[in-house]
Amino acid sequence: MPSAAERTRTLVQSTCSAVLIIPGLDGAKPYQLMPDTRSVGPDGEVFLAFPADSPAVRAAAHAQHDELNAVLEITDVAPVSVPHRIRGRAWLSGWLTRTPGGAEPGRMTLRLEVGEACVDDLWGAESVEPEDFATAAADPLVEHEAELLQHLHSAHSAEVQSLGGLLGERAMGSSEAGTAAGTAAGAVAVPVALDRFGLRVRFTGVRCFDARFDFPEPVRNVNELRYAMHTLFDAAAG
Question: Entry's SUPFAM superfamilies (predicted)?
Fold first, then answer.
């Protein structure tokens, strides 16, 4: 499974919505504190681009000794229609400063030096050390996950549905194996998350539950993903 640092890094480098929380700016509108772009620097700092007249930019400009506390909150929402669409959140807290240059006219780049981080997602809740965040790599599928999930849901719903037949075998030895397989047979299967290690499917019906279907080997790109998905579907069909 991906580490907490990798999951946090993936969320930061994804297209998930984000908002910057700055003490003393309670009166600012939420949309005014949503960065236009964000990226991670070589030392794990997070660069956020805002309009030059943003309340966040003004706050950073007036900070004493360049020590403005801030928290970047990222919310991950499933790109497919499914119950309980929020898949997770990540928080990065630290110190905010202005960064001269590096932005388009009318924009200003702010630098968030990460002091603490944590993630609460489908894998669980964990804290992340800044050093681990700095050295972690985002999942290689992060740029394509949304469109891949939407494609699986719209074009391969029957194959995704068939994965429920694997639950009994995969849960062999579990007292809930028969119950899970039986429930999945009468449920609607929706692909809810995808990473280099496997696919997570949400089964909705009498009860709602998630099941992970791991790939034989972690994938490194979309081409390897196609082979891994075919392997899963063939196992379900066989």
Answer: FMN-binding split barrel
Q: Report if residue 140 sits inside a domain.
A: no
Examine the domain organization and report whether 186 and 127 are in the same domain: no
Strand-pairing partners, residue 126, are 119
* N residues, the chain: 238
Tokens of 194: 């995808």
The answer to whether residues 106 and 178 belong to one domain is no
Nearest to residue 163, comparing CAs of 195, 142, 147, 187?
187
Q: Which residues contact 102 (CB under 8 A, 6 or more apart)?
A: 47, 109
Which structural domain, as residue segments, surrounds residue 232?
Answer: 145-237
Q: What is the mean pLDDT of residues 62-91?
A: 91
Last residue of a domain, one of 102, 135, 168: 135
The tokens of 234 are what?
């063939």
The pTM for the full model equals: 0.89
Neighbours of 198 (CB within 10 A): 18
pLDDT per residue over 192-238, tens digit each? Answer: 999 999 999 999 887 889 999 999 999 999 999 999 999 999 999 98
